[in-house]
Design brief:
This protein has 230 residues and is of the alpha/beta class. The chain has a single domain, classed as P-loop containing nucleotide triphosphate hydrolases (Rossmann fold). It is 50% helix and 14% strand. The protein has a six-stranded mixed sheet with strand order 2-3-1-4-5-6, sandwiched between helices. Strand 4, helix 4 and strand 5 form a beta-alpha-beta unit.
């Protein structure tokens, strides 16, 4: 039976759109909440739709955008395995905006780590990337300014959207539409999935890279504790 919100079941509709926005992020980052707000839906992980087997899509409330909800990833290797199975999706559809969904954390290094994990995959398409920081209820104006500065200056990402549970759907829609209007479709989307997969298919290399990052974080944390003891 055809699912009206399944990407694979509705490729022709999505292929015809020139305003496709994809949501990528870790499990628990807030992608489903964003999808519901942007599209005026009420998708739940325990609904009849299988979040584990397919990508989900819906039209936005405003702006005539199509929002595509990809699987949550715990590790870049998980996403590599998923992409290997579903790369026909990215090969078949035009992509306008890639949204990295990152849950706010008081530890900025965790935010940067989440970003880098996704950027390693999509770094070739920097101009099409927008970062959405969710769960910002406890974020102060100072925190927001610091995070904005980190992304603008250090990570060279200019497009950020800050949201929380009370953020109005129309506000998020306006922000997404503004980012869509500022960019154009990725011209080589036909080859995008193959290129991305080729970047991440060597799991051993990735394991080494992220083990190094883990060790670095461990050493930094140990150093901070030692400094406080003096």
């Amino acid at each position: 039976m055809k699912n009206p919100n399944s990407v694979l079941d509705n490729l022709e509709i999505i292929k015809a759109s020139k305003r496709n926005v994809i949501l990528i992020g870790s499990v628990g980052s807030g992608r489903t909440t964003l999808l519901n707000k942007i599209c005026g839906k009420n998708f739940q992980k325990d609904s009849c739709f299988s979040f584990s087997r397919d990508a989900l899509f819906s039209r936005s409330l405003t702006g005539n955008n199509i929002i595509i909800h990809f699987h949550g990833l715990n590790t870049i290797v998980d996403f590599a395995k998923h992409l290997k199975e579903k790369k026909t999706i990215l090969c078949a559809i035009p992509v306008r905006l890639i949204c990295f969904v990152i849950k706010y954390c008081k530890r900025y290094d965790e935010i940067i780590r989440s970003f880098n994990q996704m950027f390693l995959i999509f770094r070739k398409y920097r101009k099409n990337i927008t970062v959405i920081i969710t769960n910002t209820e406890e974020m102060s104006i100072k925190n927001q300014s610091e995070i904005q500065l980190i992304f603008n200056k250090k990570l060279e990402i200019k497009n950020l959207i800050f949201t929380n549970i009370t953020t109005l759907p129309l506000y998020i829609n306006d922000k997404i539409t503004a980012e869509v209007e500022k960019t154009t479709n990725i011209e080589d989307s036909t080859n995008m999935a193959e290129e991305i997969y080729n970047q991440i298919k060597d799991n051993n290399i990735l394991d080494i890279k992220f083990n190094i990052i883990d060790k670095r974080d461990e050493y930094l944390e140990k150093f901070r504790k030692e400094q406080k003891s003096f």
